[in-house]
Amino acid sequence: xxxxxxxxxxxxxxxxxxxxxxxxxxxxxxxxxxxxxxxxxxxxxxxxxxxxxxxxxxxxxxxxxxxxxxxxxxxxxxxxxxxxxxxxxxxxxxxxxxxxxxxxxxxxxxxxxxxxxxxxxxxxxxxxxxxxxxxxxxxxxxxxxxxxxxxxxxxxxxxxxxxxxxxxxxxxxxxxxxxxxxxxxxxxxxxxxxxxxxxxxxxxxxxxxxxxxxxxxxxxxxxxxxxxxxxxxxxxxxxxxxxxxxxxxxxxxxxxxxxxxxxxxxxxxxxxxxxxxxxxxxxxxxxxxxxxxxxxxxxxx
Length: 301
Prior knowledge:
The chain has about 300 residues and is of the alpha+beta class. The chain contains 7 helices and 13 strands. The protein folds into 2 domains: about 1-180, Prim-pol fold, CATH 3.30.2250; about 195-290. The longest helix has 17 residues, at about 235-250.
């Protein structure tokens, strides 16, 4: 009974945190609660007929769902919740090393799945419509994104009997999802490339050979500059450090020249009111950290 209460309580907690959830089937003695003898998604597929799109942030709806099905696992609609989730399956070759590192001391929410894998939660990038991706992903790695996508959320129970659990200190709510690393753009399925807002004027003068060299370079720059421009006061220097680190990983594999990145980040930082000395130190530190950890498994696109 305690596990049943925990699922309903957790679903309500997610909704109070501004997220969208839906009930999923659960594993029982006969296999899956859906009743299909050969179900290949035990405890993972939606109870509502509308599927993931039925996800709600209405507490009354949540209480009704779990009141009728207290054993239901929890599905988290990632698109409606403003998230992108990296799904790593080690049994199919997935490796945490396939995911870009984040700046030292910065963590994004992380789940240990009941099947032995990992879910990494990131903030969805602004102005980009992303859908589920797997064709460009390294083996054993998948991208969950868009309004039709969901992940199984803690403390749901896997068919193995193990629970989905947040890694200690990286619970959703205890830490905010980090912005999606720009170096993941090549493996994303992007439905729309954004128009040119004012902040993107900063990259209009990039040498043409950069765009010819890699189709995602300019989009990655746009993404980092947009996120920096939208950073709230008090978090701008941290966001600048993250942008420098992420773009430094491009510099480290020769996709961007360091001097171009320094100039673009400096202009963006000064525009949002950061001081010159602080900006210079932060950019230098972030870039050097990113260059020391370049992407070694850059996919072909």
